[in-house]
Amino acid sequence: MIKRNITFLLTQSLKQALQISFLFKILANFFNHLAYLAGKSYLTLKIKLVEYVKISMHTLLVIWLKLNFKWYVLQSFIALLSLSLSGNTIALSAVTVKTIQGSAPYLTMDGGVTKIISEEGLLGIKLPDGRQYIAPGINAELYPDAIVDNSSGITPIELSLETNTFASIQTLVPISSYPSIELNRLIREPYNYWFDIDGDRNPSATGNLIIQWKDANNKDITAEISSNPNKALIACGSATPYQLTITSTYGELSTQYGVPQTTTFNEGSHTYYITPNTNAGFACYAQPNLNYDSSSYGDESDIDGLNWVQKKGYKVTNINAVSENFPTTGSDGLYFYLLLAGISPEQAIMANGTTVTAESGSGVTLSLTSAQTPNWTGFPDEGGELALKILLKGPNKDSDDTRFTPSVFKLYSDSSHTHLLYSFKIERWYIGGGLYVDSYDEAEKFCQNLGGGYRIPGIEDYTNSNGVDFGEGPIWTGGIPGRESPYYQRRLSYKDNNGWIGGIFNEWGEVIEGYGYKNSDWFDGNYFAHQYVMIDGEPSYFGVGYVGEITSDYVNAVACVAP
Predict the structure, then answer these.
(1) What are the DSSP E strand ranges found in 206-304?
(2) 483 neighbors 491 (Cβ within 8 angstroms)
(3) How far apart are the C-alpha atoms of 30 and 32, rounded to whole Å?
(4) Cα–Cα dist 109/163, whole Å
(5) Residue 508: closest CA among 404, 432, 450
(6) What is the spatial distance between Cα 237 and Cα 341, in angstroms, rounded to a whole number?
(7) What's the half-sphere exposure (Cβ side, CA atoms, 13 Å) at 191?
(8) DSSP track, 179-220
(9) 492, 507 in Cβ contact below 8 A?
(10) Residue 100: inside a domain, yes or no?
(11) The CATH number of the domain where 543 resides is what?
(12) Who contacts 475 (Cβ-Cβ below 8 Å, separation ≥6)?
């Protein structure tokens, strides 16, 4: 019996000890809550304090009724609680005399994770691969996870392969609001691009953000992107790198309460140079002299041949098929422009160098520069496109070594040469004589003296046209089968069972020095071909003019070809 009573008393004592411990835990939580509320405004403190006291008293009452606490225990605790509350109220009153320091509101695009608290961040961009860029400035160190931008036209920001539309490049300016937006709109629905860590509400903002997109030709494309956000970054006709300029006016972001309650943004502007991934770059057109095609020789409807695009040149259809790519013929000093997409001329030069040698063959090298396409024809809407200029350098009339063998060239978009950008094969090399001669024999002797197997070209080495001599009937039918025009067709040369159809004039257009290509060795004249007709028992050699017409009248210029 005694043992049972002792056990009961010990059990009751333990329960009361646990209950008292629980009460003190409530009290401790109460004091902790007071400490947390010390950082809040007076109004918030008052409301929260009343709520906490109500909850605490309700909890105590439940415990007392359920466990049958003795009144003096509850009375003692209430007295202690009142004393504590009184003391802390005095302490809080003393604290709230001073200004409670919190945190200022800030702009954000990701629900508060990234804080935008200065103009450097206001002018920032975010890419799909997680990279964030900000404008350089004195506050750049406030953004440790961002990259301070120093891009340029030569060293642009290179995007990942997955970044393939303009919409994937994120700024604070929604594309639907291009070209500008008020900051006050950004902090409202549907954007809510702001946050306050202290929970302060009722935000307002002043200031504006302005955005502008340009291509590498300085053409403003902002409206195009606004109307088509999913426009591809890489497309023929687009010039890279793109320029993204973000400009901010002076502005402020404020909340109704809180100290500090305002974040200030100074005016600023920054331009990012952005290019698609070079492994996604490709060649669109190979442009030699546009004289002559249908835009400049409009009376000949079929002068634009297979894969020729007016005012652009040869459309690239298969970069791996060298026989299908311009040029298949060449001469010293001739040049063409490679119009690119997804890669800038400067990047192509960095990947290949300024001088390119043949992968196979010998005698010719390429010189690469960045340049704008010229106004070949004089029409006002032509030229001015940024492109990779490719200049052919090889044997000419003054060379000591004139040897040439058919040469394959390959250009790459990356420095490791794993991604092919363009390829072509020069099958025939021409040397313009740079002089007039009186006879075929004189022309032939000139070619023989060059060495290297040079010969007088045939008509098929100059043009793909068929010849009609002043209404007297056909004099040459070795051009494009069935075509009756006396002028060439802008088309790559190709072979059939009888040999070449087409040559240097139909591929390169007007090659005359000063009119077509600067510093070429080609004169304005009718160039000797080795074909002839007999007139009065004497051979009358044909000549070919620079637009491909065939004649036997007044032939006076010399050129040579190998092999």
Answers:
(1) 208-214, 242-248, 251-254, 262-265, 268-275, 282-287
(2) no
(3) 5
(4) 19
(5) 432
(6) 7
(7) 20
(8) TEEEHHHHTSTTT--EE-TT-----EE--EEEEEEE-TT--B
(9) yes
(10) no
(11) 3.10.100.10
(12) 467, 468, 469, 533, 542, 550, 552
CA angle 313, 347, 322 (to 5 degrees): 45
Residues 6+ apart with CB under 8 A from 84: 27, 30, 31
**Total number of domains constituting the chain:** 4
SS3 178: coil
* Domain identity same for 49 and 124: no
Strand partners, 330: 429
Are 253 and 192 found together in one domain?
Answer: yes
Element (H, E) at 537: none
393 and 258 within one domain: no
State whether the Cα torsion 375-381-385-390 is positive or negative. negative
DSSP of 17-42: HHHHHHHHHHHHHHHHHHHHHTTS-H
Q: What's the CA gap between 493 and 180, in Å, rounded?
A: 52
Question: Residue 226 is which amino acid?
Answer: S
Full pLDDT tens readout for the chain, 563 residues: 444 444 444 345 434 444 444 444 444 444 444 444 444 443 344 334 434 444 444 444 434 344 443 444 444 444 444 444 444 433 333 344 455 567 889 999 888 888 999 999 999 999 999 999 999 999 988 899 999 999 999 899 999 887 878 999 999 999 999 999 999 999 999 999 999 988 888 999 999 999 999 998 899 999 999 999 988 887 787 778 999 999 999 999 999 887 888 999 999 999 999 998 877 788 999 999 999 888 776 656 689 998 999 999 999 989 999 999 999 999 999 999 999 988 899 999 999 999 999 999 999 999 999 999 999 987 777 889 999 999 999 999 999 999 999 999 999 999 999 999 999 999 999 999 988 999 999 999 999 999 999 999 999 999 999 876 555 555 788 999 988 888 899 999 999 988 999 999 999 999 988 778 988 999 899 999 999 988 888 898 999 998 888 887 788 999 999 99
Domain endpoint, select from 388, 408, 429 = 429
- Same domain for 320 and 419, yes or no, is yes
Structural domain including 16 reads: 2-95
Note whether 172 and 133 are within 8 A (CB). Answer: no
